[in-house]
Structures are given as structure tokens and as C-alpha cells.
Amino acid sequence: MSNATVANTLAISLTGRQPSRTLWARVARLSDSFVWAALLLIAVLVAIPYGTVEPWWLAVFECCVFALTALVVVQKSFAPQQSLSPSRRGFGLLVPVLLVPLYAFVQSATALSADAFETRLWAVKLLAYVFFGALLFSYTSTERRLRALIYTVIGIGVASAIFGLLRQGLQHDAGFLLPYLQTGFGYAQFINKNHFAFLLEMSLGLLVGLVLGGGVRRQFWPVAAAAVVLMWTALVMTASRGAVFTALVQIGFAAAIVCAIRLKKYPEEQAAGIEFRNSASRLPPTRSIIGRVLLIAAIVGIVGVSAVWLGGDLLTTRMKALPGEVSTPDAEQHAGVRRQEVWRSTVALIKAHPIAGSGLGAYAVAITPFHDGSGKWTPEAAHNDYLELAASGGLIAVALALWFALSLARRAKQQLRRRAPFARAAGIGALTGLFGVAMHSAVDFGLHVTINTVVFIALVVIATREFQGATSEGPREGAPLAFAVEV
Questions:
Q1: Which one, 92, 176, 305, 319, has least CB within 10 Å?
Q2: Residue 116 class from Cβ within 10 Å (0-12 exposed, 13-18 middle, 19+ buried)?
């Protein structure tokens, strides 16, 4: 007997009447809307308490995601005709990431992990991320929901930037709405300014790619420009060298993608007789490679000058100190603190456990015998997510990560060819944000923070999801949503 039959029998026994299909359809619609709204609400709420890094806030996030997953499983069981997604091919992206927490459980159950308890906690957290990504991929099923997801990501970045600027200008004592925010430490709601920079790189990259890709109507340029200025100003004011450099490269990356595809015709547009004319962004219609290079160089140059002007002496001083922090020989008072020493110790850890790793999430314990420091400070992260992944998960975890990255790149490229202009512009923005994370992760560990991983997942969905209603015909006339492409 199927679950649907059981549900009908139970309804008849309780009410004495045969439930109507309209009732079940209404319940399914309400459940669908509830899950979708809950996903967006979770993304907003995890940004507030320091980006969700405290154990009990992280536990609340995990419980909410697991509860939503259970609700969806029950809903689909009683309504099997409702598929999880109009396109199940995208769930192939989740396979390698799902194997990682399973591998972590294996590490924790054997002698492979240096800290079995932390490895289990890490596996549960990653499992929550995988479920969140699966739900978001499944329920972001229309262009209207695509827009809502984009606005949520950009809104989180803008709100965080405003809070950061207010805190920088108004905070004089410990605590600024949140009790752990200390004067001179961190930025916005984050304890670590580099973690804030990760969030801004993704939100800003999404918006910049959307604008350059033609996803914003001309009358809404002032709104988009104000959001870009706010986020860029906050990013520069952090004086994070990696963030400023990453943002500069992101702008060039987005401009390069737009210049590469803006004059091409794609299969759906050829069938419809539509050209991708980027009238919203008004990029110079140059076909020459030299012209495109000059355009990108001009954009990056303008942004670079503004970074020096906004960042002032603090940013300039930190830029000058960068070579010494990376390559200068150890100073006695800083022994083992520089990134160079941390990376050297991590490489030694990788050589000790090359295949299976030392335990995902157990880096802080595993690195101790290999860290040549004074003992006053022991790294809890490698300040390079690629090295830390290799040290914690070995070649097995690296292979799974490469599988995911190649699948993501292949599917994102397919979507750039198939999508309508607005969805294509959103894909450019999402790829720009993901590219920034890939760069900055070489010198930091921003994805260890929950909100950054949640936004990262949202960008993956935006870059790879096929959306109902996202055709090559362009936006509907009179659409109430602000951001739309002009074709």
C-alpha cells in the first residue's frame, strides 16, 4: 500500500469524507512555499550572530536544516507525483560532496582521525550543508525564485556592509549590538575581518556580474551603483589585502566573461532569432582582443585607484608588509606565526598522511607535532583551504573536491549557453563570486564560517540551476521585479 493511499484512508477515517485533489494540491503548495521561505530566512538569520560560528548557533542551523529535510521527505512521500526537481541532473553535483561527510564518518570510526569527536562534528555540519544545498536547488525552480535568491544574497552583503560602516564610525566600547564585538577587531558582525571580506566578495561579485552581464535595467542603475559603492567601500575599509586583490581580479574576470559571450548567439536564441544585445550595461561593442583587454584594464585601474584612496595609509602600509609576512625569515617574537611557517608545517602533515589524511575537522590537533613554533600560538586553520583539505582528507578528499569542481564548471558552462539573458547574467555574477572564493581561499579560511558557506551554496545554485520560465524571450512586460534584462 502506497503512502498516498495510507494518507487517503486516514483522512476518510477522521472526516468521513473522501479528500479532494484540490485540498491535497493546496496543502502541497503551502508546504512548498513554506520550505522555500524557510530556506531564505535561514540564509538571512545565520548572517546575524557573527556569521554563525558559536556551537549553539551552529546547532540551531543544523537542526533547522534537518527538520526541513524531514518535512520535505514526508511531503514527497504522501505526494509522490510531486518530483523533487524539474531537472534531477543537477543533483549530480551533490554526489561528490555527499561522499565527503560519509568519508569523514569513516575517519572518525577508525584510527584515521587525530580527533574523532571533531571529525564527527565536522561531518554532521557538512551533511547539513549538503541537505541545505539539495533543498535550495530543488525549490529554486522558477525565475521569480531565482530573483528572490539573488536579492537575498545581495541584501545580506549590503546590510552587512552598512552595519560594518556604522560600527567603524560609532563603536567606542566593547559590544556593538552583539556583545563579542570588540573595538579594533573584526568588521561588521564578524570577529575576523577576512571572513567578512569573503561574504562581500561573493555578494559584490554577484551584483557586478549581474550589472556587466546586462541583468539590471537602466532605470535601476542608481540602486545597483549605490549597493556596489557601499559594499566596495566596506571591503576596502577592512584593509584586507587578500580581499582587495581578489575583488580587483573578480571585476576583470566578470568583464572578460561578458566580453567573451556578449556577441555570441546561443542555440535557443538562434531558434528564436534573438541576439544577446547588452543594452542595459552598454559595454563598448569591440570585437578586438586589444580593445577588450584595454576595457578590462581600465575598469580594474579605476577600482584600484579608488581602493588606495579609500583605504588610505592603513591599506598601503599593510600592502607593503605583505612580502615580509609571507617570505621573510622568522623573527624570534613571531616564530611560527607567519603564513609561510603554517604552510610549511601543513605540507609536513600532508607528507605524513598523504592518502587518507589526518581527519577532516581535526587539523588543530593533527598539526601540533609538525608546527615549529614558540608554543605560544598554535594554528587552528592552515590559512589555505586547499592545503588544509589535503592535510585533513588526503588524496581521497582532494579527488572528491576536484570531481565537484569539474562538474560545477561543466554544468555552469552549459547553463551560460542555454539560459535566457537574465539568467545568464545571474550566472556570470555567481561565477564571479565563486571565482573570488577560489582565489581568496588560497590564503585564508573564510568558508569555515557558516554564512559564507551558505552564500557559497546559493551561488552554486544560481550558476547551475535550470529555471522554469527562464526562456530566451527576455523579461515579461510590466514585471514587478526591479532587476531585469533588456533585450
A1: 305
A2: middle
Amino acid letter for position 439? M
How far is C-alpha 381 from the geometric centre of its chain's CA atoms? 20
Average pLDDT over residues 262-286: 45
Distance CA 486, CA 217 (A): 6
The tens digit of pLDDT for each residue in 306-354 reads 555 554 444 445 444 555 444 444 433 444 467 888 899 999 999 999 9
Q: Report the alpha-carbon distance of residue 231 to residue 203 in Å, rounded.
A: 8
Q: How many CA atoms, within 13 angstroms, populate the side-chain half-sphere of residue 93? A: 25
Total Cβ atoms within 10 A of residue 342: 23
The answer to whether 452 touches 463, Cβ cutoff 8 Å, is: no
pLDDT at site 262: 58
Orientation angle between helical segments 450-464 and 55-78, nearest 10 degrees: 40
CA within 13 Å, CB half, 464: 28
pLDDT tens for 21-65 read 577 677 778 888 999 999 999 999 999 999 999 999 999 999 999
DSSP 3-state assignment of 184?
coil
C-alpha triplet 249, 428, 390: angle, nearest 5°: 60
Q: What are phi and psi of 190, to 5 degrees?
A: -100, 145
Report the alpha-carbon distance of residue 294 to residue 300 in Å, rounded.
10
Mean pLDDT, residues 405-411 taken together: 92
| Nearest alpha-carbon partner for 224 in 203, 207, 202, 200 | 207
